[in-house]
Specification:
The chain is mostly helical and 209 residues long. It has 12 helices and no strands. It folds into 2 domains: 52 residues, Arc Repressor Mutant, subunit A, CATH 1.10.10; 153 residues, Orthogonal Bundle (Tetracycline Repressor, domain 2), CATH 1.10.357. The termini are far apart.
């Protein structure tokens, strides 16, 4: 770990994560190298190893940051004064996801390899942020659906959370993929993140309409 204050260390970590985030907007995980990430920061590739040992650790930190951002929005939703119907809540939850395209793109990756190539302490910090987002969704359920018991909350979460992993590939389709599906005779109907998420949540909350 480099010498200096905790503030400097955190600032440099954030610079690396932000550089990775910018690159990932136009490049794939496979294409991005530590050299690319270093080139988008103010220091060398060797210096990155003072903060992250692998590319996977940087991406895991980026996903942790995205989960933290999402949890903040969910907490704000849970603390809002207005009561919501199942339909209104479905729309509100869907709106939080349509803002998180980076999170959805990261969720579509191979998490097993990413987590296996990260140190235990990095994985622990990520899991804390992931767990906080789950609890934030649960707090929303408690706030807007007080009649929903613990088992029903768990069933909602176990259906909704895995659904998130497929949102990006289902709503972000390249022209090459469109042509291939047309040639294969696949009847694909394009839907936005908002529409797909809203429909899913509303279906899960059908009994609370």
């Amino acid at each position: 770990m480099p010498r200096g204050s905790a503030e400097l260390t955190n600032a440099r970590r954030e610079e690396i994560i932000s550089a990775c985030e910018r690159l990932y907007q136009t490049m794939s995980f496979k294409e991005i190298t530590l050299k690319d990430i270093a080139g988008a920061t103010s220091f060398t590739r060797t210096s990155i190893y003072n903060y992250f040992q692998t590319k996977e650790e940087i991406f895991l930190a980026l996903m942790q940051k995205e989960y933290e951002r999402w949890a903040e929005e969910l907490d704000a939703l849970a603390e809002s004064d207005a009561d919501m119907s199942a339909a209104a809540f479905s729309g509100a939850l869907a709106h939080t996801l349509e803002k998180r395209s980076m999170l959805l793109k990261l969720l579509s990756m191979n998490h097993f390899d990413m987590e296996e190539n990260s140190r235990p302490e990095c994985l622990r910090d990520f899991k804390k942020a992931y767990g906080a987002s789950i609890e934030a969704v649960r707090r929303c359920l408690v706030r807007f659906f007080p009649d929903m018991d613990a088992a029903a909350q768990r069933n909602f979460l176990y259906a909704f959370l895995p659904f998130l992993y497929g949102l990006y590939p289902y709503t972000t389709v390249s022209e090459k993929q469109r042509r291939a599906m047309a040639e294969a005779g696949v009847d694909f109907a394009y839907m936005t993140v908002y529409d797909m998420a809203c429909n899913c949540v509303r279906a899960l909350l059908e009994s609370y309409e």
